[in-house]
Amino acid sequence: MTGDPLAQAERGVSLWRDAWLRLRRNRLAVAGGLMLILLCALALLTPWIAPYDYKAQDLALGAAPPSAAHWLGTDTLGRDLLTHVLWGGRISFAVGFVATAVALAIGVLYGTVAGYVGGRVDAVMMRLVDILYALPFMIFIILLMVIFGRNLVLLFLAIGAVEWLTMARIVRGQVQALKQQEFIEAAVSLGLSRWTIIRRHLIPNTLGPVIVYTTLTIPSVMLLEAFLSFLGLGIQPPASSWGLLISYGAETMEEYPWLLIFPGLALSLTLFSLNFLGDGLRDALDPRIAKD
Amino acid sequence: MALLEVEDLSVWFHTRNGVVRAVEQVSFSVDAGETLAIVGESGSGKSVCCYSLLGLVPMPPGRIESGRARFAGRDLLRLAPRQLRAVRGNQIATICQDPMTCLNPFLSLGEQLMEPLLQHRKVSRRAARAQALELLEEVGIADAGRRFGAYPHEFSGGMRQRVMIAMALIAEPKLLIADEPTTALDVTIQAQILRLIAEIQARRNLGVIFVSHDLAVVADIADHILVMQDGRVVERGAPRTLFRDPQHPYTRKLLAASRRGRKAAPPPPQREPVIGIEGLRTWFSAPGGRTVKAVDDVSLTLYRNEILGVVGESGSGKSTLGRSILQLVKPTAGSVRLGGTELTRLNESALRPLRRHLQMIFQDPYASLNPRMSVFDALAEPLRYHRLASRRDVTAQVLALMDDVGLPRSAIRKYPHEFSGGQRQRIAIGRALATRPEVVVADEPVSALDVTIPAQILDLILALVARHNLSLIFISHDLSVVRYLCDRVLVLHRGKAVESGATEELWAAPQAAYTRELLAAAPRLD
Amino acid sequence: MLRFILHRLLQAIPVLLVVVTATFFLIRLAPGGPFSADKAVAPEVLHALEARYRLDQPLSAQYLSYLGDLLRGDFGPSFRYPGRSVDEMIFTGLPATAELGLYALLISLLLGTAAGVIAALRPNSAQDYVPMSAAMIGICLPSFLLGPLLILVFGIWLDWLPVSGWGNVPGDKLLPALTLAAGYTAYVARLSRGGMLEVLAQDYIRTARAKGLPEWLVVCKHGLRGGLIPVVAFAGPAFAGLLSGSFVVETIFQIPGLGRFYVQAAFNRDYTMIMGTTIFFAVLIVAFNLLADIAAVWLNPRLRQQYRKPAA
Amino acid sequence: MNARHLAALLCALIAALGLAGCGGGETRVETGNREQVLHWGNGTEPQELDPHIVTGMPEHYILIALLEGLVLKDPATLEPIPGVAERWEMSADGLVYTFHLRADARWSNGDPVTASDFAWSWQRALTPSLGNSYAYMYFAIRNAEAFATGKLADFGQVGVEVLDERTLRVTLDHPTPYFLQLLDHYSMFPVHRPTLEQYGDPYQRGSTWTRAGHFVGNGPFALDQWELNKVVVVSKSPTYWDAARVKLNAIHYYPVENVSTEERMFRAGQLHITASIPPDKIAVYRKEAPQLLHVEPYLGNYFYRLNTQVPQLADPRVRRALAMSIDREQIVEHVTQGGQQPAYTFTPPDTLGYTAPPGFAYDPEGARQLLAEAGYPNGQGFPPTELLYNTSEGHRKLAVAIQQMWKRELNIEITLNNQDWKVYLDNVDNGHYQIARAGWIGDYVDPNSFLDMWVTDGGNNRTGWGDPRYDALVLQCAPAALEREARYRCFRDAEALLLEAMPVIPIFFSTRNYLRQPGVRGLPANLLGYPLFKQVYLQVGDVQSDD
């Protein structure tokens, strides 16, 4: 460790407060965070602010481009697109965040245990991941639907059950590297149990890559939801989601481009906001980055 | 006319948290065939000073605020990037501190070695290879042809540094910047490398800038010494005058750190054994079915209130010995007895409650502290886990521990990254003491710390051993530290104990040839 | 190393067995059989078909005879395409999918790495944000959207490239490969940016600069190899995932690939075909995980001697 | 990996993908026009090319090029015209047909096509072990059903008789006015016995006789190439008896499953003709390129099945209320937009001269009244009911529109449920549904093809509805009638019963919407979308193509 002028300058702030301070100074992260808050607020307030009833249709009007009456235009059944984007946002946000949280919980725990315990346990656990990767996903979804019927909770679980696999792999790799660090050995020599070591020493230190992967997962989960809806597991019309709006919009991108552009913008906005916020969070939470 | 003449060099770092003046108005000059030593602690600006000459300081945040650096009739600081590249590795070459991190682990040594030649001279790969081989022989690497395709990790530290030197010399530079070239090496290797640099310098009439934190190391080789603190030169002069009559208090402090004496206090009189080790073996299987005998048949007894030094070079098995005693590595054979309990036979869950009696202080206080736990968390965890403190008095106990290890109470909510290395090591020591252990193994606890810090930590350790009635196994490669701290010494060589005895007796009359070699290689200021 | 590979291959056997068994029984639980159709199928026809494909036997007997066939390397006949065997169909579809996947992987590696490296050279500047945002678009533009979009622009409006086909006319492989690559590019870009940021901070990069090497050589020769290690770890499983991931692209671009079989087999309840493609996919996953590990060792000389364990 | 490798890789990649030099040049369609090669969008990959195994339209379009039955249809009128049989006689009671095969009918390997070829092929088609889903097409022939269901082992007792190699006599079970139409269905095509015997068991699936190189047919075209999921190529057969009239040199069939892909291929000049068109594109083409868009009436309908076992749907008044509250004019005009006809009967109008009188009208007021009579005034107390459909954009749009109409007119809440095709089939088959979307395409142009499915416990009924009066009308009255008018009277009475009970809600009659390049000639519109390939040719007419 040679010349490290910044370390001296940054003394005297605690990790979390420091993280918060640095996050606040990261203009992009703040913009991302504010945008997410705005989107969440819109989703929460949808029942009160949506300009139309989401079931209302005007068959004679059909698909119309944006106008004063319909700011984002209407779909082929003459339904107000803004209303659908707002209602769809509710579903997409719920799916995106809850399913990702499920994946996160399972993946982080599983990956940490496999990576930390290592040896035969690790081998068995990772081969199990391979097996789950290999099983035909569609059949799995169809079976879920048949056995449990159709509901949103199931949708979250189904998506979470798929997405955790990659998360587990990432976390495992991370933990394997962390395991070599002396502070883990220090924890062992303190006589801490494995579970305590995993909970207090390993998981918090895998946050960086986990945050990054999470920000990428949320939008792809939102799109995956549309696929599950096509298999009958997801939400049913007239309710909608961004994933569904985008896939319908993709079909008519030439005739009615606004049906694709606006839901697409909403998703992109979310992705980029998440991404900037995620990067900011990761950097802010990592004291090693804090030093240079 | 000097080879390099630096005047009024200032390098500042413009960070989000303000300006850090890394180098302030530094001037010096180096002649061909002459060695300039720049000495100072980390953060003193000595490395930044050198690297800024070659444009190797990241900019931004770094910026050269002022100065001139005349070299071969040109001002290095005002060269275009392309011109500067033609100087780097060609006329001015560098050797860095840790060849493990400074050599690219992904490329073969031969490839890296030829690079400067291929870059700066119009030579074929074949010619470059021939020259590289020749140079490898010159820096003392036998069988260079066979090892040309080897990777850095396949070499020992000393060998790597030889390659590094060869790489610096291959384009026949006029000036060599050596940034702590021996700090990461064992004493015996350090002596060889220093000798090698001196020889080559003489042969090629090189100008050398030798950056170091250790006055003892530069004592023999430097023509001039520059002492830096906080970016400024606080004192300069020839070694002899500087050592005899240091003017600046900082220089005196540095000198004191290099002139460590013998242990002041006499060994404890009573001989109550705390831990007994008998025929300990820890073997690893290596690829190719080989067996690495990291610890091979070591026996020792540790008495209460005693500090036992374990000395050896890297690879001698001293760290493995420490970890085997603590059962962090399962020994292959032998016995470790704590009180009446045979530790080697216990499984992990049976061992867990006993672990609090055996604690460890690690070498690297950056790696051994969880970056996401505050001081309070780090110290409270063992207290709570072993129920050594109730919910109510845990804070009081943590504060007491902090007092004990000399941490300010106000730092209780801070995180490791906010501390300097020495303070971190205090946290680590506090954590080890929190469980009220009987035996502590300290594995090179001061070797990652800055020059003036170890003294404080060593004094802290001495005080704590006395106060808490501890028994300490102190593992180190630094003989001066061991002599200052330990009552008895065990010398390890290739996994075997070659010699042991009371510290001063051993110093006075080393028995084993290896011990003699070790003692002779240690740099001294007198 | 050889022992390590053998060990992993041995581990693959139970993995495949579990996959085979689980899939075999799971697909039979899914409603709708292979022969159900819109127009009611006469019972005697159904019986004849079930007898033909041993579906009238008890499940355990079906399972055992399937395993027996499998050991002989026989995946059985497709139910949906009665004139073809599953083996034949997999090997007919494989070349196109493998080629498509390979191109997509190469494109995503090239573009993603380029974006990641460029971004890592000047973190938190426009040079970082612009390429990273561009790479990120791949996630917002799933292939069912990007494919048609690219066709519209390059195939129809500009008329530069064919709108469909595979290997019929020059250039018809570019758009599908780009479409499939887009999603992966974002991941590669992020991973390589992170990897490069870490590597570029290493001392040996400064050593390379100190040798007077030009910046591109420093980055490409000294930086890239270490910076790409996380990408390689990702690329193995990702390439295996391309098989199922290529379904959409194959459909949009009319490519005779395996991805369509994999998905359509599930829709058609073509039991033998589901089994065949799933087993094939499982083998790919095992193989590519192993390959990724081997590649990581190849990339990183330090790992070559890491397989050391305490001698108990 | 160093920079040099990277650069090399990049170059290789660009070369491999052939970035250079494309665009411009002649499109596939233009080349085809010049060389008389028709590029045909064919929907899905054919499951097989064995006429006694397959069941779909894509296979149909290929098989009518490769094989030929005794009788063909005039594509303009759908009247029977001579095929392998140059003439035929029907006995006065309508039960015995005698076919005289032409002397110059040849297989593509040169063998003559004989009466025993037909007899053997039909025996094969009926053999139970083959699992021919279309065996029922033969059931008009005496004892054919018994043979097909395994009750009769001796094919000699089936009403198919080889009088000599050029004469075939077929005896029917009951008069079947549409029998000659059936002979043009691929399930009654002949197959070449020696070829089948060479490449496996002719009575089992899994033979390779249909592969290119193996296939021997008797149609105007011969199989050249069959690449899985890519293309099926057939080229003009020199041995065909009417080869002189065949103008096309080849037909390329492309299995393009995705309709949007198909449309783009058409637009880029890769296809002469598509299998369908994305519904949302119809309006665009109608406005911008009407000469390319073809909207033709089709022998099919779209309807909702009502599960009469579900309590709230057991009451015919509820079922009629549901039917009467759907505004079909709005739906065809604004939702489907493909020129479909609103359906107030089940059988399409003018099915070989048969038109049923409307069984109901759009009458929301009357619907509300019926619903009130059934115990749900203003929709109150109407239990939650689910509408099931298989996943498809078109079905979804329609369901959402109708859901809203029911809400608006009847104030009842219908939830929607989409399922993947096989799950949907399973649920409908087992009666696990309340309301389910369905469609039907006639196998032949006759009301029987639409009405015999609703007999009690019929395999395609699936609504749980049954009425002995209806069964008698369809199964006894109609077959016994000798005159067309008398027969149609039976059907009209039956359909009136059906519409009164309303176990199904007809919504619209289908159209076949597709795109066709202007140069394609000889494809007159007909109800079956039936092409006679030997009449088709390519000619980029008097108008020179632009660009």
Structure description:
The complex is a heterotetramer of chains A (292), B (526), C (312) and D (547). Chain A has 292 residues and is mostly helical. The longest helix of chain A has 37 residues, at 81-117. Chain A has 13 helices and no strands. Residues 1-14 of chain A have low confidence and may be disordered. Chain A has a single domain, classed as MetI-like (MetI-like fold). Chain A starts with a helix and ends with a helix. Chain B has 526 residues and is of the alpha/beta class. In chain B, 36% of the residues lie in helices and 26% in strands. In chain B, the strands form 4 sheets. A 6-stranded mixed sheet of chain B has the order 6-7-8-3-9-10, sandwiched between helices. Chain B is globular. The two termini of chain C are 20 Å apart. In chain C, α1 packs antiparallel against α12 and α8 packs antiparallel against α9 (215-227). By secondary structure, chain C is an all-alpha fold. Chain C has a domain at 93-268: MetI-like fold (Orthogonal Bundle). Chain C has 12 helices and 1 strand, in the order ααααααααααααβ. The longest helix of chain C has 36 residues, at 86-121. Chain D is an alpha+beta fold. Chain D folds into 3 domains: 3-45 and 223-274 and 516-538, Periplasmic binding protein-like II (D-Maltodextrin-Binding Protein, domain 2, 3-Layer(aba) Sandwich); 68-206, Dipeptide-binding Protein, domain 1 (Alpha-Beta Complex); 300-511, Roll (Dipeptide-binding Protein, domain 3), CATH 3.10.105.10. Chain D contains 17 helices and 18 strands. In chain D, α10 (316-324) packs antiparallel against α12. At the B-C interface, α2, α4 and β11 of B face α8, α9 and β1 of C. β11 (273-285) of chain B pairs antiparallel with β1 of chain C.
Mind sketching the topology for me?
The complex is a heterotetramer of chains A (292), B (526), C (312) and D (547).
Chain B: E1 4-15, E2 18-30, E3 35-39, H1 46-53, E4 62-71, E5 74-75, H2 81-87, E6 92-95, H3 99-102, H4 109-120, H5 125-138, H6 144-147, H7 157-169, E7 175-179, H8 187-204, E8 207-212, H9 215-219, E9 224-229, E10 232-237, H10 239-244, H11 249-258, E11 273-285, E12 291-303, E13 307-311, H12 318-325, E14 333-338, E15 341-342, H13 348-351, E16 358-361, H14 375-385, H15 394-405, H16 421-434, E17 439-443, H17 453-468, E18 471-476, H18 479-485, E19 488-493, E20 496-502, H19 503-508, H20 513-521
Parallel strand pairs in B: 3-8, 3-9, 6-7, 7-8, 13-18, 13-19, 16-17, 17-18
Antiparallel strand pairs in B: 1-2, 1-4, 4-5, 9-10, 11-12, 11-14, 14-15, 19-20
Helix pairs in contact in B: 4-5, 4-7, 5-7, 7-8, 8-20, 14-15, 14-16, 15-16, 16-17
Chain C: H1 2-29, H2 43-52, H3 59-71, H4 86-121, H5 126-140, H6 143-157, H7 174-200, H8 203-210, H9 215-227, H10 229-253, H11 258-268, H12 271-299, E1 309-310
Chain D: H1 3-17, H2 28-35, E1 37-41, H3 57-66, E2 71-73, E3 80-82, E4 85-90, E5 96-101, H4 115-126, H5 144-148, E6 160-164, E7 167-171, H6 179-182, H7 193-198, E8 221-227, E9 231-236, E10 250-254, H8 259-267, H9 279-288, E11 293-306, H10 316-324, H11 328-336, E12 341-342, H12 364-373, E13 385-390, H13 393-410, E14 414-419, H14 421-429, E15 435-441, H15 448-451, H16 468-480, H17 484-501, E16 504-515, E17 520-521, E18 537-538
Parallel strand pairs in D: 1-10, 13-14, 13-15
Antiparallel strand pairs in D: 2-3, 4-5, 5-7, 6-7, 8-9, 9-10, 11-15, 11-16, 12-16, 17-18
Helix pairs in contact in D: 10-12, 16-17
